[in-house]
């Protein structure tokens, strides 16, 4: 720190940031003319975006500095959210809104000759995630900052985020997403770098006190360099930190020696190998592929993050037993589970603690969130791979398992099979490490993400663990979404209208205030304004569809939307089969009757994992149906089918506010929660959905009359599957007609869709498409009926929004803070006092 006498000079020059339009313009022009080396003669929209972002970044970093100083000074317990994915989307709009300066920026940009929407549109999404899990992490960061929690996110700085999707001749084509050409939102911290080891040997020796000391001598080192991303809270002085690690070659000198020996190429190759670790996000959603590089990513990120956390703790010079009083670490699914092992290693091998003392600290520190029950998504790593990559960690895992098995054996001496079932090491060939079990054993709390899901994990995949640890270790925290991005930012007009009836913008900090809207559900004038906003949002989407795909859709039609990752369990195939059924029904009608039908636009969007053949077939079928239906003169505006390419966060912000009906139709018991369901309802759309995930709680909150539920219940799924397997599967007759039409070649070569049809017809219909098809079709007919009465429809939408308070990620974060982390917000009274 600077000595006292010199501090005056510092204070005199301390930067304070802009607070009005002129100040913003001045900063913008300064960045254009100096940082970007341009002028008013060559400042295009992209440069204006860059300069605006830099101006806001400078502004944010001041809050960020103050927040960090305050949190260090107060030294309260902090939360660390470890997530391999953060699906952040765009930052500029969010920063302007959260610090309350969008109006000022709009006026400033306009004076300088730009439209703010065009400037915002220049930004490339930060897409460091696949889907629900990654976007949840981003919503959580927003809530943590907005509620003033001392919290850090830790992740990886992938050079390539989730691929960009193009549709070529109806097929998905993946294009790499290199997003770092220009990223004003990150601060490289080259001073914060940590060497991370891999491979090598483990040594045991006895010290002077006769104690065995184990040490690990890695065979390869990779350097982790920190990049910090400021996370502004909404209307608070808190700007938290998201720290992303980038991998580099561990030491340039080492390379230099080799270079001198004439091994230039191999020296560079080593550097490239190191850089590979953080190069690319694995593009699988709800699927584990067990690739070695993925395990490397996990350890690299977890070890760097823990080193950082431990270093911060050690500065306080507290005894180790106070570690869990200062540090709460949340594991976002099992991807960071190695943190459990790494902390145990640090405590016993490096800090010299006894096993039991260390283990108590570890368990008190960690919490684990499970996001799926799908077996193909549960992580397992082979023992051989561990032995090769992380030999010391494997030993520790074996010890953790040994002590755990001993405990279980004492508890259930007569149940031999229990030990086999719950062992962290699966005795298969090859032997596997079951990461979820390790995460459970290493945490003090395990939570699911919606009530049904949390009940299911307790009665199915983790049943034995409930018997061992007792039911209190397992809890539920129903997911939530940030209303700042998903209402205020995505749907400014609706947000403003709501503010006129809810005593201002307070609902953005306390979403339960939306209940004040309830009494306007029957207010004709209010409903009219509401409907006009929905219509304007649909016009905007229709324009986008026309411009990008050349398809004309009528904004007065019912917009029926399913946008999410493409997955068999999410059942986009059922949706498109339903669309085909609708098409056939319309075609078979007399023209007079046909004219009276409710016009619809079926909108799809979502990426398929590159290796997921069935998901790709679904995309192809949707596009093939679209090209037939959209060009059928008998049908006209009655039905259009649109697949919007490259669905991502910023597209979601445009699509969701334009939906009348959205589809959340997973096989009951498969979708842990879903979060877009919440976004759609919050934006004044209704849901057609199954009794799955958070749909159930949305129904509880908004009322059964305001949602279109259909299909079999989770409790019946097992019996139905059993019946399929034993040949009692008679296909739904309407679905048979759909299949016949596909097989006739109406939508192109039937072989192209053979897998989809066969999965229902021949392979047991695991996802119960046929079982649910009839009730799905019938429920869509009810939707058409309901939509005819627009007054009543809008009233349902208003009532639903009024009752969505529960689904704020603020509520969710407060629940984690209270029941899992035991942390409190850092309330700021006098900001000047750091
Ligand atoms: C998702 C779940 O599928 C979704 O239902 C939930 O809303 C979301 O997490 C947030 O909790 N899971 C994933 O995205 C995923 O990849 C496997 O889970 C690890």
* Unreliable segments of 5+ consecutive residues: none
Mean pLDDT: 96
Helix coverage percent: 40-55%
**Strand residues, percent:** 15-25%
Ligand list: N-[ethoxy(oxo)acetyl]-beta-D-glucopyranosylamine
**Count of helices?**
34
By oligomeric state, this entry counts as: single chain
The biggest beta sheet is recorded as: 9 strands, mixed
Shape: globular
Would you tell me the structural class of the helices and strands? Answer: alpha/beta
Descriptive labels:
834 residues; alpha/beta; 9-stranded mixed sheet; 6-stranded parallel sheet; globular
Structure characterization notes:
The protein is an alpha/beta fold and 834 residues long. The protein is 49% helix and 15% strand. It contains 34 helices and 24 strands. The strands form six sheets. A nine-stranded mixed beta sheet has the order 7-10-11-4-1-12-13-17-18, with helices on both faces. Helix 2 packs across helix 3 and helix 2 crosses helix 5. The longest helix has 30 residues, at 45-74. The site of N-[ethoxy(oxo)acetyl]-beta-D-glucopyranosylamine has 18 residues, from helix 7.
Task: Briefly summarize what is shown.
The protein is α/β, with parallel strands linked by helices. The chain has 34 helices and 24 strands. A hairpin with a 5-residue loop joins strand 15 and strand 16.
Topology:
Layout (H helix, E strand, L loop, with lengths): L3 H10 L7 H15 L9 H30 L3 E5 L3 E4 L2 H7 L3 H10 L4 H5 L5 E3 L3 H15 L4 E6 L7 E5 L2 E5 L11 E12 L2 E6 L5 E6 L2 E13 L6 E11 L2 H9 L3 H13 L15 H24 L7 H4 E6 L5 H13 L4 H11 E4 L10 E3 H7 L1 H21 L4 H7 L2 E2 L5 E3 H7 L3 E4 L2 H9 L3 H7 L4 E3 L6 H7 L2 H10 L22 H26 L8 E6 L8 H17 L2 H5 L4 E6 L7 H17 L9 E6 L4 H7 L5 E4 L11 H7 L3 E4 L5 H8 L5 E2 L4 H12 L7 H12 L9 H8 L7 H20 L1 H13 L6 H13 L13
Parallel strand pairs: 1-4, 1-12, 4-11, 12-13, 13-17, 17-18, 19-20, 19-22, 20-21, 22-23, 23-24
Antiparallel strand pairs: 2-3, 5-6, 7-10, 8-9, 10-11, 14-16, 15-16
Helix pairs in contact: 2-3, 2-5, 4-20, 7-34, 8-9, 10-12, 12-13, 12-15, 14-15, 22-33, 23-25, 23-30, 23-32
The structure holds N-[ethoxy(oxo)acetyl]-beta-D-glucopyranosylamine (7GP).
The site of N-[ethoxy(oxo)acetyl]-beta-D-glucopyranosylamine has 18 residues, from α7.
